[in-house]
Every structure is written in structure tokens, then in C-alpha cells.
Amino acid sequence: MVIGQEFVTQHPVDLEMMQKTFSLGMNDYLIFQVKSKIATVRDIRYLQDAYGNIFVSLKHKANDAHGRWEVFRGESIEQKDLLFSVKQSSVFQLVSSKVKCIPTFYTRQKSVPDFRIEGAFIDSSCTIYLGNSNTIVAHRHQQHNLKSTIRWKTIFK
Hints:
Blueprint: E1 15-18, E2 21-24, E3 29-36, E4 44-49, E5 54-60, E6 69-73, E7 82-88, E8 96-103, H1 106-109, E9 115-120, E10 125-130, E11 136-142, H2 146-151, E12 153-156
Antiparallel strand pairs: 1-2, 1-12, 2-3, 3-4, 4-5, 5-6, 6-7, 7-8, 8-9, 9-10, 10-11, 11-12
Family: Belongs to the LOR family.
Protein name: Protein LURP-one-related 10-like
């Protein structure tokens, strides 16, 4: 469990991403929000629940050719609170993209990442797999219709 038991469901849930908010279903019920601090030099974003409680911080690593993002527990960006990092598997990826999700204990305890993310840049889709298996944990696809274009909506399953 990377984040918390409160985010686990027994059945698949469709999440819609609209600009900087995540919502559930057609009623736009807010579940998560991504926030950033306006006056900051670092590229840090915060994922918070509908009540404003921050549960992870996302920090973009400057000067990293693989586009690495680090995810920390709570509002912290200290290495002791690092949960995992995500990076592209190759520096040069034009059409398809493979991303590695690397937990903090990855290099010390095991040689297989907890998650593998594969997707295509052109159609803005990706699939998240469990480790190196073909077990799908989540899927993201861009919905292409007039409503989604106006509202910039992406569906996560």
C-alpha cells in the first residue's frame, strides 16, 4: 500500500480529470485536487482530497533527462518521506512511452518495480500494470468529443 487504505475500492471506479481536479462520474463529485503554490521556484504540486487535506507532494526533478517526478508523503519534500519516483524509461520517446514507477526501497530490496506504466503520447492514453506482469491496475484514456474538448476531460479506470 503506497498511499493509504482509504483509497482502495473493491470494484473499478471511473475518475474524470478536468483541468486541475479529479471528479467521480457524471455529477462532478470532487475526490482529488492538484494544487501548486503560486510564488515558488521549484515545480512542486500537492494532491489533496475534497476537504483540502494534502496526502502527497509531487516534485519535478530539475535537470533530469528522464523527466523524473518524486512523490512524497504529505506536504514534505524531504528524502526521508519519499514514497516513489516515476521516470521515462528512455530519454528519446516520440510515439510510445514507457514509464517506470520506482519505490524508494527498489534498489535495496528488489529488482522489479511495483508498477509499470505504458502509453502512447499521440492518443494521450496509458495503462498501469502490476510490476512486470500483464495485470492491469489502472487505465487512462482521453475522451474525444465536444464536451471533453471544452472541459478538457480525461478518464481514469
